[in-house]
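2024-03-11 09:14:02 INFO receiving multi-entity request
2024-03-11 09:14:02 INFO entity count = four
2024-03-11 09:14:03 INFO echoing inputs for audit
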Amino acid sequence: MSALKLANLPESTRRLAETSPTLPEGVRPSGPRGIVLDAALRLFAEHGFAGASIRDIAQAAGVQPATFYAHYPSKEHLLADLIRIGHEAHHQRLRAALLDSSPDPRQQLMAYVRAHVRMHCELSMLAIVANSELHVLNAELAGPAATLREQSTQLLAEVIERGRRAGVFSVPDTWLAVAAIGGMGLRVAYWFSSHHELSAETVADTYAQFACRIVGVHDSNGVQK
Amino acid sequence: MSALKLANLPESTRRLAETSPTLPEGVRPSGPRGIVLDAALRLFAEHGFAGASIRDIAQAAGVQPATFYAHYPSKEHLLADLIRIGHEAHHQRLRAALLDSSPDPRQQLMAYVRAHVRMHCELSMLAIVANSELHVLNAELAGPAATLREQSTQLLAEVIERGRRAGVFSVPDTWLAVAAIGGMGLRVAYWFSSHHELSAETVADTYAQFACRIVGVHDSNGVQK
DNA sequence: GTCTATATGAAGATAGAC
DNA sequence: GTCTATCTTCATATAGAC
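2024-03-11 09:21:47 INFO inference complete, emitting structure
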């Protein structure tokens, strides 16, 4: 990708709606390293890992390409850092949501989905990079994130299984429900942006209602028309 | 991506479960052009457009890199061809499903989702490339596919709107229901494979049931537990 | 830490023989 | 149509001055 193409982006269909990179509270390094991380987050989200070069990232960060290597040993390590941050933020929010929830399976499901969707709204670039570029990393660098991903999926599976055993949920296949609920939330990162007419809260609440319906729970509160 | 990395793929997390490229009936060219198209489909699906080189594609197809240019004027035109094929196959299947369906909104929704999900099972690599690489194309090459995509989305929106007006469906926001139902089906392409323990039919039927539930329709038939 | 300059290889694409 | 050979640009990454 040339610098010229970067400037001409608006002419082509965008990969995602969001235009500004956001990193979770407290993890963004100060100084040039944070600027480089922001630039890489945006460019990896928009063009993918292979579609954004060190030169592109350095230019977007306002430094020379060689300066990048004062902060990261390689482009792949930079990606690994972003993917780690993304998976940790995701998993931590899910776990916190479940810990704050009442033990009722329906409340747990709604808490999980709300946190899942809110993360994909508020950290959409990070979610896209973490989800769609993990395959680029070698086994050693991908391992920790892959483990977190599996644990996050497992959390949802357990919520649904508990609801089934309690006779509250009714689904033909737990794994398919997990895939459907997780997948629909994941896709939010591509069309949501901080300028969307709907708020992240509204989207999260509505998707939580959709998730309840998927597992066969009728509405008792929440958004309705 | 080097040839060496290609051979070592199993060591890293895969982007998708499917391993063999499939093109829709009747559109795969015979001879070397079809072999090149198959090779590009697999490599673009696994590594993305920017992550697969002409040299990789040529090697996978068993020809020299220069031979590629006897069939396509550029790498971007090859991608445009795959994306066109994918969007046309998707749209044609959706339209056929709706035409074959009774006018009942619930039947139409199930027909749409079944076709949507089956396409993402049976042509998973094509769906991934068409969906996740469109942003690479310039406006001229992306235009036709973007139009088809919008029309396919609009079809689902109209089905849901009709169901709402008929008082059969109950959703807080048509667009969010479209995004959720479309998105969960799209994600199937990443985890389904021709060797999956569940059949494409089973997945499609279950997702059709999920879609009915999302729009607030109770079960009357279909998979249930 | 940041720079200029550069080593080394891989990228897309073409020339021209057969 | 396919090949060998090659042009040109861009890639990741490093050396070494400040």
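2024-03-11 09:21:48 INFO post-check: The mean pLDDT of chain B is 94.
2024-03-11 09:21:48 INFO post-check: Residues 29 and 37 of chain B are 8 Å apart (CA to CA).
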